[in-house]
Amino acid sequence: MHHFTYRDNRLFAEDVDLTTLAEEVGTPFYVYCEATLRRHLRIFADAFAGADALIAYSVKASSNISVLKVLASEGAGADVVSAGELHRALIAGVAPEKIVFSGVGKTRDELSFALDANIYQFNVESEPELVALDEIAQTKGLRAPIALRINPDVAAGGHENISTGKSEDKFGVPWSRARALYAMARAMKGVEIKGVDVHIGSQIDDLAPFEAAFKKVATLINDLRADGCVIERLDLGGGLGIPYGEGATPPHPQAYAQMIKQVTASLGVQLIFEPGRMIAGNAGALVARVIYVKDGASRRFIILDAGMNDLMRPALYDAYHDLWPVVKNTDASEAYDVVGPICESTDRFAKARMLPRQHAGDLMAIMSAGAYGASQTSQYNSRPLIPEILVSGERYAIIRKRPTVDEIMDGEAIAEWLC
Ligand SMILES: *Cc1c(COP(=O)(O)O)cnc(C)c1O
Q1: Distance between CA atoms of 60 and 81, rounded to whole angstroms?
Q2: Cα–Cα distance between 197 and 241 in angstroms, integer?
Protein backbone atom coordinates (compact mmCIF):
# COMPACT_ATOMS: atom_id res chain seq x y z
CA MET A 1 0.00 0.00 0.00
CA HIS A 2 1.12 3.56 -0.60
CA HIS A 3 -0.06 7.16 -0.42
CA PHE A 4 -0.15 8.12 -4.13
CA THR A 5 -3.78 8.72 -5.07
CA TYR A 6 -5.81 10.55 -7.71
CA ARG A 7 -8.03 13.44 -6.68
CA ASP A 8 -10.13 14.85 -9.51
CA ASN A 9 -7.84 13.05 -11.96
CA ARG A 10 -4.69 14.68 -10.57
CA LEU A 11 -2.07 12.56 -8.86
CA PHE A 12 -1.20 13.45 -5.26
CA ALA A 13 1.56 12.27 -2.95
CA GLU A 14 -0.23 12.35 0.40
CA ASP A 15 -1.81 15.84 0.23
CA VAL A 16 0.66 17.34 -2.23
CA ASP A 17 -0.46 17.90 -5.82
CA LEU A 18 2.33 16.55 -8.03
CA THR A 19 1.50 18.91 -10.90
CA THR A 20 2.09 21.89 -8.63
CA LEU A 21 5.17 20.26 -7.14
CA ALA A 22 6.60 19.71 -10.63
CA GLU A 23 6.14 23.41 -11.39
CA GLU A 24 7.84 24.39 -8.16
CA VAL A 25 10.87 22.09 -8.21
CA GLY A 26 11.21 21.27 -11.93
CA THR A 27 11.42 17.79 -13.42
CA PRO A 28 12.57 15.10 -13.12
CA PHE A 29 12.49 14.43 -9.38
CA TYR A 30 11.94 11.68 -6.83
CA VAL A 31 9.12 12.10 -4.34
CA TYR A 32 8.67 10.02 -1.18
CA CYS A 33 5.69 9.78 1.17
CA GLU A 34 6.73 9.88 4.80
CA ALA A 35 3.44 8.19 5.75
CA THR A 36 4.30 5.16 3.61
CA LEU A 37 7.81 4.82 5.02
CA ARG A 38 6.39 4.84 8.54
CA ARG A 39 3.56 2.52 7.65
CA HIS A 40 5.81 -0.09 6.05
CA LEU A 41 8.22 -0.08 8.95
CA ARG A 42 5.34 -0.52 11.40
CA ILE A 43 3.81 -3.36 9.38
CA PHE A 44 7.13 -5.17 9.48
CA ALA A 45 7.67 -4.44 13.17
CA ASP A 46 4.10 -5.45 14.07
CA ALA A 47 4.57 -8.77 12.29
CA PHE A 48 7.35 -9.57 14.76
CA ALA A 49 5.70 -8.01 17.82
CA GLY A 50 6.49 -10.09 20.87
CA ALA A 51 9.64 -11.55 19.34
CA ASP A 52 13.12 -10.24 20.14
CA ALA A 53 13.79 -8.59 16.78
CA LEU A 54 15.96 -5.77 15.46
CA ILE A 55 14.93 -4.20 12.16
CA ALA A 56 18.05 -2.84 10.53
CA TYR A 57 16.81 -0.98 7.44
CA SER A 58 19.02 -1.64 4.42
CA VAL A 59 20.43 1.81 3.74
CA LYS A 60 21.37 1.10 0.14
CA ALA A 61 17.70 0.84 -0.87
CA SER A 62 17.15 4.56 -0.26
CA SER A 63 19.93 6.35 1.53
CA ASN A 64 18.83 9.94 1.93
CA ILE A 65 19.45 11.14 5.48
CA SER A 66 15.85 12.35 5.81
CA VAL A 67 14.58 8.89 4.89
CA LEU A 68 16.95 7.39 7.47
CA LYS A 69 15.79 9.93 10.05
CA VAL A 70 12.12 9.00 9.52
CA LEU A 71 12.91 5.31 9.96
CA ALA A 72 15.21 5.89 12.93
CA SER A 73 12.38 7.81 14.62
CA GLU A 74 10.30 4.63 14.27
CA GLY A 75 13.01 2.67 16.06
CA ALA A 76 14.75 1.19 13.03
CA GLY A 77 18.43 0.38 12.98
CA ALA A 78 20.51 0.26 9.82
CA ASP A 79 22.25 -2.30 7.66
CA VAL A 80 25.15 -0.54 5.95
CA VAL A 81 27.54 -1.76 3.27
CA SER A 82 30.17 1.00 3.24
CA ALA A 83 31.77 3.66 5.41
CA GLY A 84 29.70 6.22 3.51
CA GLU A 85 26.46 4.50 4.48
CA LEU A 86 27.66 4.18 8.07
CA HIS A 87 28.32 7.95 8.12
CA ARG A 88 24.82 8.58 6.81
CA ALA A 89 23.21 6.33 9.41
CA LEU A 90 25.10 8.01 12.25
CA ILE A 91 24.32 11.51 10.96
CA ALA A 92 20.63 10.59 10.73
CA GLY A 93 20.68 9.54 14.37
CA VAL A 94 20.61 5.75 14.05
CA ALA A 95 21.99 4.32 17.29
CA PRO A 96 25.31 2.47 16.75
CA GLU A 97 23.94 -0.42 18.80
CA LYS A 98 21.37 -0.91 16.03
CA ILE A 99 23.82 -0.88 13.10
CA VAL A 100 25.05 -3.97 11.28
CA PHE A 101 27.74 -3.85 8.59
CA SER A 102 27.40 -6.17 5.57
CA GLY A 103 29.28 -6.42 2.27
CA VAL A 104 31.91 -8.60 0.60
CA GLY A 105 34.58 -5.95 0.26
CA LYS A 106 34.90 -4.00 3.48
CA THR A 107 38.30 -2.30 3.42
CA ARG A 108 40.57 -2.16 6.47
CA ASP A 109 39.79 1.55 6.80
CA GLU A 110 36.09 0.79 6.80
CA LEU A 111 36.46 -1.97 9.38
CA SER A 112 38.49 0.37 11.55
CA PHE A 113 35.94 3.18 11.28
CA ALA A 114 33.08 0.82 12.17
CA LEU A 115 35.00 -0.55 15.16
CA ASP A 116 35.55 2.99 16.43
CA ALA A 117 31.84 3.70 15.95
CA ASN A 118 31.07 0.71 18.17
CA ILE A 119 28.48 -0.85 15.87
CA TYR A 120 26.33 -3.81 16.85
CA GLN A 121 27.57 -6.42 14.41
CA PHE A 122 29.94 -7.13 11.54
CA ASN A 123 28.50 -9.55 9.01
CA VAL A 124 31.76 -11.13 7.87
CA GLU A 125 31.72 -12.55 4.37
CA SER A 126 35.07 -14.32 4.00
CA GLU A 127 38.05 -15.82 5.80
CA PRO A 128 40.44 -13.00 4.80
CA GLU A 129 37.94 -10.43 6.08
CA LEU A 130 37.73 -12.34 9.37
CA VAL A 131 41.52 -12.31 9.68
CA ALA A 132 41.70 -8.59 8.90
CA LEU A 133 38.97 -7.71 11.37
CA ASP A 134 40.62 -9.77 14.12
CA GLU A 135 43.96 -8.03 13.53
CA ILE A 136 42.51 -4.51 13.45
CA ALA A 137 40.37 -5.07 16.54
CA GLN A 138 43.34 -6.47 18.47
CA THR A 139 45.50 -3.44 17.69
CA LYS A 140 42.69 -1.29 19.14
CA GLY A 141 42.26 -3.55 22.14
CA LEU A 142 38.68 -4.30 21.04
CA ARG A 143 36.63 -7.38 20.23
CA ALA A 144 34.49 -7.10 17.13
CA PRO A 145 31.00 -8.61 17.46
CA ILE A 146 30.54 -10.84 14.44
CA ALA A 147 28.22 -13.07 12.51
CA LEU A 148 29.44 -15.00 9.51
CA ARG A 149 27.30 -14.57 6.44
CA ILE A 150 26.54 -18.05 5.24
CA ASN A 151 25.84 -18.80 1.61
CA PRO A 152 23.16 -21.49 1.91
CA ASP A 153 23.22 -22.42 -1.80
CA VAL A 154 19.53 -21.69 -2.37
CA ALA A 155 18.23 -20.08 -5.56
CA ALA A 156 16.05 -17.01 -4.99
CA GLY A 157 15.26 -13.61 -6.35
CA GLY A 158 13.17 -12.30 -9.17
CA HIS A 159 16.15 -11.91 -11.51
CA GLU A 160 19.54 -13.60 -11.64
CA ASN A 161 21.20 -10.22 -11.12
CA ILE A 162 19.67 -9.94 -7.64
CA SER A 163 20.21 -13.50 -6.40
CA THR A 164 22.88 -13.67 -3.71
CA GLY A 165 22.47 -17.06 -2.04
CA LYS A 166 23.61 -19.56 -4.64
CA SER A 167 27.00 -21.25 -4.39
CA GLU A 168 28.26 -19.44 -7.51
CA ASP A 169 27.35 -15.99 -6.11
CA LYS A 170 30.15 -13.92 -4.58
CA PHE A 171 28.35 -13.43 -1.28
CA GLY A 172 28.99 -15.07 2.07
CA VAL A 173 31.12 -18.01 3.10
CA PRO A 174 30.46 -21.40 1.53
CA TRP A 175 28.06 -23.62 3.42
CA SER A 176 30.65 -26.41 3.53
CA ARG A 177 33.24 -24.13 5.21
CA ALA A 178 30.98 -22.58 7.83
CA ARG A 179 31.82 -24.77 10.82
CA ALA A 180 35.55 -24.59 10.17
CA LEU A 181 35.44 -20.80 9.97
CA TYR A 182 33.45 -20.53 13.18
CA ALA A 183 36.06 -22.74 14.86
CA MET A 184 38.74 -20.39 13.57
CA ALA A 185 36.83 -17.33 14.80
CA ARG A 186 36.45 -18.88 18.26
CA ALA A 187 40.19 -18.97 18.63
CA MET A 188 40.59 -15.28 17.73
CA LYS A 189 41.09 -12.65 20.43
CA GLY A 190 39.87 -9.74 18.30
CA VAL A 191 36.44 -11.10 17.43
CA GLU A 192 33.52 -12.34 19.42
CA ILE A 193 31.01 -14.66 17.81
CA LYS A 194 27.48 -13.37 18.23
CA GLY A 195 25.44 -14.99 15.52
CA VAL A 196 24.81 -16.31 12.05
CA ASP A 197 23.81 -14.20 9.05
CA VAL A 198 22.13 -15.04 5.76
CA HIS A 199 20.74 -12.90 2.92
CA ILE A 200 19.67 -14.82 -0.17
CA GLY A 201 18.54 -12.18 -2.64
CA SER A 202 16.07 -9.44 -3.38
CA GLN A 203 12.52 -9.03 -4.73
CA ILE A 204 11.72 -12.59 -3.61
CA ASP A 205 8.01 -13.20 -4.17
CA ASP A 206 7.70 -16.66 -2.65
CA LEU A 207 8.29 -17.91 0.90
CA ALA A 208 9.78 -21.24 -0.20
CA PRO A 209 13.39 -20.12 -0.84
CA PHE A 210 13.42 -18.15 2.41
CA GLU A 211 12.14 -21.16 4.30
CA ALA A 212 14.67 -23.49 2.68
CA ALA A 213 17.55 -21.15 3.53
CA PHE A 214 16.37 -20.41 7.08
CA LYS A 215 15.90 -24.10 7.87
CA LYS A 216 19.45 -24.71 6.72
CA VAL A 217 20.86 -22.00 8.97
CA ALA A 218 18.75 -23.26 11.88
CA THR A 219 20.46 -26.66 11.59
CA LEU A 220 23.80 -24.88 11.36
CA ILE A 221 23.09 -23.06 14.62
CA ASN A 222 22.48 -26.39 16.33
CA ASP A 223 25.72 -27.78 14.87
CA LEU A 224 27.68 -24.71 15.95
CA ARG A 225 26.29 -24.94 19.45
CA ALA A 226 27.31 -28.60 19.54
CA ASP A 227 30.79 -27.40 18.56
CA GLY A 228 30.75 -25.11 21.59
CA CYS A 229 29.92 -21.76 19.96
CA VAL A 230 27.60 -19.34 21.71
CA ILE A 231 25.06 -18.16 19.14
CA GLU A 232 22.72 -15.44 20.41
CA ARG A 233 21.59 -13.81 17.19
CA LEU A 234 20.25 -14.82 13.80
CA ASP A 235 20.35 -12.19 11.03
CA LEU A 236 17.98 -13.21 8.25
CA GLY A 237 18.82 -10.36 5.85
CA GLY A 238 16.26 -8.69 3.60
CA GLY A 239 14.80 -9.64 0.27
CA LEU A 240 11.05 -9.62 0.71
CA GLY A 241 9.47 -8.67 -2.62
CA ILE A 242 6.95 -5.89 -3.22
CA PRO A 243 4.13 -5.60 -5.78
CA TYR A 244 5.47 -3.64 -8.77
CA GLY A 245 2.20 -3.88 -10.68
CA GLU A 246 -1.34 -5.19 -10.76
CA GLY A 247 -1.67 -8.85 -9.93
CA ALA A 248 1.69 -9.21 -8.17
CA THR A 249 1.23 -10.94 -4.82
CA PRO A 250 4.46 -11.19 -2.86
CA PRO A 251 4.10 -12.69 0.62
CA HIS A 252 2.66 -10.40 3.27
CA PRO A 253 5.06 -9.61 6.14
CA GLN A 254 2.63 -11.43 8.46
CA ALA A 255 3.02 -14.68 6.50
CA TYR A 256 6.78 -14.16 6.29
CA ALA A 257 6.90 -13.61 10.05
CA GLN A 258 4.77 -16.63 10.82
CA MET A 259 7.04 -18.90 8.79
CA ILE A 260 10.11 -17.45 10.51
CA LYS A 261 8.65 -17.79 13.99
CA GLN A 262 8.03 -21.46 13.24
CA VAL A 263 11.48 -22.14 11.83
CA THR A 264 13.29 -20.30 14.63
CA ALA A 265 10.98 -21.13 17.56
CA SER A 266 13.35 -23.53 19.30
CA LEU A 267 16.53 -21.54 18.73
CA GLY A 268 16.19 -18.87 21.41
CA VAL A 269 17.97 -16.19 19.38
CA GLN A 270 17.49 -12.49 18.76
CA LEU A 271 16.32 -12.04 15.17
CA ILE A 272 17.80 -9.33 12.97
CA PHE A 273 16.19 -8.23 9.70
CA GLU A 274 17.57 -6.05 6.94
CA PRO A 275 14.55 -5.04 4.85
CA GLY A 276 15.14 -2.39 2.21
CA ARG A 277 12.81 -2.56 -0.76
CA MET A 278 9.83 -3.60 1.37
CA ILE A 279 10.14 -0.37 3.37
CA ALA A 280 11.05 2.17 0.71
CA GLY A 281 9.96 0.79 -2.68
CA ASN A 282 6.34 1.83 -2.83
CA ALA A 283 6.96 4.97 -0.79
CA GLY A 284 8.53 6.69 -3.79
CA ALA A 285 7.88 7.68 -7.38
CA LEU A 286 9.96 9.36 -10.05
CA VAL A 287 8.10 12.20 -11.73
CA ALA A 288 9.25 13.09 -15.25
CA ARG A 289 7.99 15.25 -18.09
CA VAL A 290 7.40 14.13 -21.65
CA ILE A 291 9.89 16.00 -23.87
CA TYR A 292 8.70 14.60 -27.18
CA VAL A 293 6.34 12.01 -28.57
CA LYS A 294 8.10 10.56 -31.58
CA ASP A 295 6.90 8.22 -34.31
CA GLY A 296 9.60 5.71 -35.19
CA ALA A 297 9.39 3.44 -38.25
CA SER A 298 7.60 0.72 -36.30
CA ARG A 299 7.04 2.10 -32.80
CA ARG A 300 5.81 5.21 -31.08
CA PHE A 301 8.16 6.58 -28.44
CA ILE A 302 7.57 8.72 -25.40
CA ILE A 303 10.84 10.49 -24.61
CA LEU A 304 10.99 11.53 -20.96
CA ASP A 305 13.34 13.98 -19.31
CA ALA A 306 14.36 11.19 -16.88
CA GLY A 307 16.82 8.58 -18.04
CA MET A 308 18.49 5.36 -16.97
CA ASN A 309 21.01 7.40 -14.99
CA ASP A 310 18.11 8.53 -12.80
CA LEU A 311 16.49 5.09 -12.43
CA MET A 312 18.67 2.16 -13.43
CA ARG A 313 16.40 -0.73 -12.50
CA PRO A 314 14.83 -1.32 -15.93
CA ALA A 315 18.25 -1.23 -17.64
CA LEU A 316 19.96 -3.31 -14.91
CA TYR A 317 17.35 -5.94 -14.13
CA ASP A 318 14.66 -5.66 -16.84
CA ALA A 319 12.53 -4.31 -14.03
CA TYR A 320 8.87 -3.49 -14.51
CA HIS A 321 7.46 -0.21 -13.18
CA ASP A 322 3.89 1.01 -13.47
CA LEU A 323 3.65 4.33 -15.32
CA TRP A 324 0.89 6.67 -14.19
CA PRO A 325 -0.07 9.89 -15.94
CA VAL A 326 0.11 12.68 -13.37
CA VAL A 327 -3.03 14.15 -14.91
CA LYS A 328 -5.44 11.49 -16.13
CA ASN A 329 -7.05 11.98 -19.50
CA THR A 330 -9.75 9.89 -21.10
CA ASP A 331 -8.07 9.53 -24.51
CA ALA A 332 -7.85 6.11 -26.08
CA SER A 333 -4.79 4.08 -25.13
CA GLU A 334 -1.89 3.43 -27.47
CA ALA A 335 1.24 1.31 -27.26
CA TYR A 336 4.34 3.31 -26.44
CA ASP A 337 7.98 2.58 -25.82
CA VAL A 338 8.84 4.89 -22.93
CA VAL A 339 12.48 5.96 -23.09
CA GLY A 340 14.90 8.51 -21.70
CA PRO A 341 17.31 10.89 -23.39
CA ILE A 342 20.50 8.88 -22.68
CA CYS A 343 22.62 7.64 -25.56
CA GLU A 344 22.14 3.94 -24.73
CA SER A 345 19.61 1.50 -26.11
CA THR A 346 18.90 0.14 -22.63
CA ASP A 347 17.66 3.60 -21.61
CA ARG A 348 14.06 2.38 -21.71
CA PHE A 349 11.46 2.31 -18.93
CA ALA A 350 8.81 0.29 -20.77
CA LYS A 351 8.25 -1.46 -24.06
CA ALA A 352 4.92 -1.44 -25.91
CA ARG A 353 3.14 -0.11 -22.82
CA MET A 354 -0.54 0.80 -23.27
CA LEU A 355 -1.08 4.37 -22.09
CA PRO A 356 -3.69 7.02 -22.81
CA ARG A 357 -2.40 9.31 -25.57
CA GLN A 358 0.53 11.38 -24.34
CA HIS A 359 1.67 14.80 -25.40
CA ALA A 360 4.84 16.83 -25.02
CA GLY A 361 4.74 18.57 -21.66
CA ASP A 362 2.65 15.89 -19.94
CA LEU A 363 3.88 14.59 -16.60
CA MET A 364 4.38 10.91 -15.88
CA ALA A 365 5.02 9.15 -12.59
CA ILE A 366 7.22 6.07 -12.61
CA MET A 367 5.77 4.20 -9.66
CA SER A 368 7.43 2.03 -6.99
CA ALA A 369 10.72 3.83 -7.53
CA GLY A 370 11.50 4.50 -3.88
CA ALA A 371 14.00 1.65 -3.51
CA TYR A 372 17.15 1.29 -5.62
CA GLY A 373 16.13 4.47 -7.43
CA ALA A 374 17.80 7.65 -6.19
CA SER A 375 20.44 5.61 -4.39
CA GLN A 376 21.67 4.15 -7.71
CA THR A 377 21.72 7.35 -9.73
CA SER A 378 24.70 8.64 -11.68
CA GLN A 379 25.53 11.78 -13.60
CA TYR A 380 26.11 9.90 -16.88
CA ASN A 381 25.80 12.18 -19.89
CA SER A 382 26.60 15.01 -17.43
CA ARG A 383 23.04 15.08 -16.25
CA PRO A 384 22.70 16.50 -12.74
CA LEU A 385 21.49 14.15 -9.99
CA ILE A 386 17.78 14.73 -9.70
CA PRO A 387 16.21 16.14 -6.54
CA GLU A 388 14.60 14.07 -3.85
CA ILE A 389 11.48 15.47 -2.22
CA LEU A 390 9.95 14.24 1.02
CA VAL A 391 6.23 14.79 1.47
CA SER A 392 4.45 14.77 4.82
CA GLY A 393 0.76 15.60 4.65
CA GLU A 394 0.55 18.97 2.89
CA ARG A 395 4.20 19.78 3.48
CA TYR A 396 7.17 18.98 1.33
CA ALA A 397 10.90 19.46 1.64
CA ILE A 398 13.72 19.23 -0.88
CA ILE A 399 15.93 16.63 0.80
CA ARG A 400 18.48 16.49 -2.03
CA LYS A 401 18.83 19.48 -4.30
CA ARG A 402 19.52 19.45 -8.00
CA PRO A 403 23.15 20.45 -8.58
CA THR A 404 24.00 23.10 -11.13
CA VAL A 405 26.07 22.20 -14.16
CA ASP A 406 29.05 23.87 -12.46
CA GLU A 407 28.54 21.70 -9.40
CA ILE A 408 28.62 18.57 -11.59
CA MET A 409 32.21 19.57 -12.41
CA ASP A 410 33.10 20.29 -8.79
CA GLY A 411 36.31 18.50 -8.02
CA GLU A 412 37.38 18.27 -11.65
CA ALA A 413 40.38 20.25 -12.83
CA ILE A 414 42.25 20.91 -16.03
CA ALA A 415 45.74 19.44 -15.57
CA GLU A 416 48.21 22.28 -15.13
CA TRP A 417 50.23 21.36 -18.23
CA LEU A 418 47.09 21.75 -20.36
CA CYS A 419 46.43 25.30 -19.20
C1 LIG B 1 20.55 -5.32 -0.39
C2 LIG B 1 20.62 -6.03 0.88
C3 LIG B 1 19.53 -6.06 1.75
C4 LIG B 1 18.19 -5.46 1.41
O5 LIG B 1 17.51 -6.20 0.43
P6 LIG B 1 16.00 -5.85 0.06
O7 LIG B 1 15.69 -6.77 -1.05
O8 LIG B 1 15.98 -4.43 -0.36
O9 LIG B 1 15.18 -6.09 1.27
C10 LIG B 1 19.69 -6.66 2.99
N11 LIG B 1 20.88 -7.23 3.34
C12 LIG B 1 21.93 -7.24 2.51
C13 LIG B 1 23.19 -7.88 2.95
C14 LIG B 1 21.85 -6.65 1.26
O15 LIG B 1 22.90 -6.67 0.44
Answers
A1: 7
A2: 19
By most ligand atoms within 8 Å of CB, the mutation choice from 37, 71, 79 for ligand 1 is 79
Q: Residue 219, Cα to own-chain centre: how many angstroms? A: 29
CB 234 within 8 A of CB 219: no
For residue 194 and ligand 1, the question of a CB distance below 6 A is answered with no
CA nearest ligand 1 atom 3, residue: 238
Residue 195 CA from chain centroid, whole number:
23
Whether 201 contacts 165, CB under 8 Å: yes
| Three-class DSSP category at 379 | coil
| Homologous superfamily of 103-273 | Alanine racemase (3.20.20.10)
Residues tagged active-site: 343
Q: How far is the CA of 275 from the centre of ligand 1 (A)?
A: 6
Q: pLDDT category, 165, cuts 50, 70, 90?
A: confident
Ligand 1 centroid, distance to 112 Cα (angstroms): 23
387 lines ligand 1 (CB under 6 A): no
- Whether the per-residue pLDDT at 377 is higher than 90: the answer is yes
CATH architecture of 4-32+281-411: Beta Barrel (2.40)
- Cβ–ligand 1 distance for 199 under 6 Å, the answer yes
* Domain range annotation of the chain: 4-32+281-411, 103-273
The 10s digit of each residue's pLDDT in 64-117 is: 999 999 999 999 999 999 999 999 999 999 999 999 999 999 999 999 999 999
Beta bridge partner(s), residue 101: 80, 122
Q: Which atom of ligand 1 is nearest to the CA of 149?
A: 13
C-alpha triplet 240, 242, 248: angle, nearest 5°: 120
With bands split at pLDDT 50, 70 and 90, how would you rate the model's confidence at 159? Answer: low
Separation of alpha carbons 125 and 130, rounded Å: 8
What region, left, alpha or beta, does residue 8 occupy, with left being phi > 0 and alpha being psi -120 to 50 degrees?
left
Check if 309 has its Cβ closer than 6 Å to any atom of ligand 1: no
Atom of ligand 1 nearest to the CA of 203: 7
State residue 246's pLDDT score. 81
> What is each CA distance from 393 to 33, 70, 284, in whole angstroms?
8, 14, 15
If one residue of 163, 274, 368 were mutated to test the ligand 1 pocket, choosing by the most ligand atoms within 8 A of its CB, it would be 274
Q: What is the DSSP letter of 129?
A: H
